[in-house]
Design brief:
305 residues; nine-stranded mixed β-sheet; alpha+beta; globular
Amino acid sequence: MHRSIVLLLGVLTFSVFAGNEYLLPMKESRLVGSLKYYQVRKGDSVAEIARRYDVGFLSVLEANPGVDPFLPKTNSYLTLPTWLILPNVKPQGIVINLAELRLYYFPPDRSHTVYVFPIGIGRIGRETPTMTTVIKEKIENPTWTPTPNIRKEYLQKHGKTLPKVVPAGPNNPLGEYALRLAKGGGVYLIHGTNKKFGIGLRVSSGCIRMNPWDIKWLFTHVKIGTSVRIINRPLKYSVEPDGILYVEVHQPLSKTKAQKGRKKVVSAPKKLQKLVDDSFSKTRLKEALLSQRGIPTEIKDMDKK
């Protein structure tokens, strides 16, 4: 078994480092991290717990079906999604999996380490696109130039007119740091925020939103020209060196407002289906595809006949 368990007894403290730092596994393995449990204290909310442990809000809800996001039961235990399967793409630069609402950073000078951050992404109608690109520009204290459509929507929703340019400062929704992507004419950014909510949610106009301390750390470590790959894969799986098949399934992103809040189907690719050839493992896979808890699930020991 790869999984180790860490119990966190109701103490909310900021991590010394931004994001979650994981040691990359041995060759042929893609499992990183460990499963952690947090004991809820009176007055805790899921949003606060997610923020303090630098994991996504929706990721915590996925891992804990039925939990009250505002008043989780005191003394109950929440599973923190800090055990995961790396995306099956080249471990280089920045990799963003929209379905996970996670950003992975693989430093070029530390081949044994990966940093994982929760992110906010584009809402329905203003989806963050998949792409392969690079960091084009690094901007400290960015100004924000809302598009005409954004200004129109803001006026309709709030009855106020946004200025054509929002200067740097506490009222700027881009926060203190921004990384401009080359593709799309430079309209897409990885940036901070001036709000305490929105990380681990679909709330942006298409950009990638990060916690202020996370984007500050990332901004200081990445260089112009760093590769960025944005994918959308709700299902990941890995056959580990010890022969255990793990599957990690996330809730697919809603494509329309009508889909929001509804259960959406995740299908196993044919290659995965071929690995699952007995009734017990087929049942395990079916359960993982239906539950969509966003944490690795052991499906089968491939070495057992």
